[in-house]
Amino acid sequence: MTLDGALQTLLAVDEGECPLLSCFVDLSGPRSVWQNELHSQSKVHARTLPTMKREAYGEAFSLIDRYLETSLRPESRSAALFVRGGKEPLMVSLQFEVPMETRLIVDGLPQVYPLVELRDTYDRFVIVITTEKEARILETTMGAVSRQILSERPELRQRIGREWTRERYQNHREDRDNRFIKEKVRILDDLVKKRGHNHLVVTGSPKMVSRFVGALPPHLEEKLIHKEPTNPKAGLDVILLEAIQSFAEAENAESHDHVAKLESSILSSGLGVSGYEASKTALESGCGDLLVVDQDYPDTEQREELIRLAAQSAAHVETVQGSEVLARLSGVGCLLRYRPDHW
User: Fold this and answer.
1) Which of 71, 226, 254, 256 is the most exposed, having the fewest neighbouring CB atoms within 10 Å of its CB?
2) Burial letters 145-164, b for 16+ CB under 10 A, else e
3) Backbone phi, then psi, for 19, in 5-degree steps?
4) If pLDDT is split at 50, 70 and 90, which confidence band does 157 have?
5) Where does the pLDDT of residue 160 fall: very low under 50, low under 70, confident under 90, or very high at 90 and above?
6) Which CATH number fits domain 255-336: 3.30.1330.30, 3.30.70.20, 3.90.550.10, 3.30.1490.20?
7) What pLDDT shows up at residue 132?
8) How far apart are CA 326 and CA 256, in angstroms?
9) Whole-number Å distance between alpha carbons of 143 and 96
10) How many whole angstroms separate alpha carbon 219 and alpha carbon 196?
């Protein structure tokens, strides 16, 4: 199940009689560490629940335990599970190649904010790795390579001295390089248009990175968030990790731009509101366009409610880390599509 598919499923879940467990696990450390942390949190919840709900809770947690014991992929760095036992069972599981904080939440409804934050921080982007011998175009989704296009250039070295002079070889090589780069830019352009990517990372050998970036048309160049020569022999994992970090930094910078726009809209055009109540009203009335929420917003129930309202009204969500401006605006706000007459 994809992340978007899981969110649609979870947002459609109704509250039932049995407790629903939202479990997020950081798998990057030793199994014993995250397992002990999870079981420690589980014991606290079990003691807190009413006696009549403990059996259904135990059933749900056993399913989580079994899944984590038998179904984890070696490359996964985190997992998210939403489980309910009893007469209205639910089991939704996801694994990611980016980290999440280990936490176990018990409520009547699934807690979807951590997934929204994860998607906002590590959504899809494109990496181009280009060298003198080949070019790779990688589409990444949630930290994992979801599509790869590999092209190798035809070898010309054997023609020197046998068929061509060195000068003719160099001229042909230059022309071949230009055609190779032009073709890769065309493939990249098609991928970006079809898949709706907004971020691009270009890496590889210094010469080819410079030439590839120089060949980008303006509409692709404006999507470029990172261009950095690197050693292709370092391996795909290292390159991917650096690209993910660059993407997360660019995404955080963009989220701060949204905060600045929110503040400006509140002070000038009136197409912005701040605070829980005003944001809730905007989303309920259908005029909310973009919900901007602090990742450290203290009231998790209010945050979950706003996330659900945003999904129901087709409003976008932007999560923000470390913004003093947003903190001054009560930690949450909403950009408006229009301002209702009765406001």
Assistant:
1) 71
2) eeeeeeeeeeeeeeeeeeee
3) -65, 145
4) very low
5) very low
6) 3.30.1330.30
7) 80
8) 9
9) 7
10) 12
DSSP element (H, E) containing 192: helix 166-195
**Structure confidence by residue, pLDDT tens digits, 266-311:** 999 789 999 999 999 999 999 999 999 999 999 999 999 999 999 9
Looking at residue 164, the DSSP 8-state letter turns out to be: B
Structure tokens at 1: 């199940």
What is the domain partition of the chain in residue ranges? Answer: 3-111, 125-234, 255-336
Give per-residue pLDDT as tens, 209-227: 999 999 999 999 999 988 8
Kind plus residue range of the DSSP H or E element containing 258: helix 236-267
Domain 125-234: CATH superfamily, name plus number? eRF1 domain 2 (3.30.420.60)
Name the residue among 249, 338, 241, 242 with its Cα closest to residue 285: 338
Closest to 94 in 3D by CA, of 22, 201, 29: 22
Instruction: Indicate the class that CATH gives domain 3-111.
Output: alpha beta
Give the other-Cβ count within 10 Å of 193's Cβ.
Answer: 11
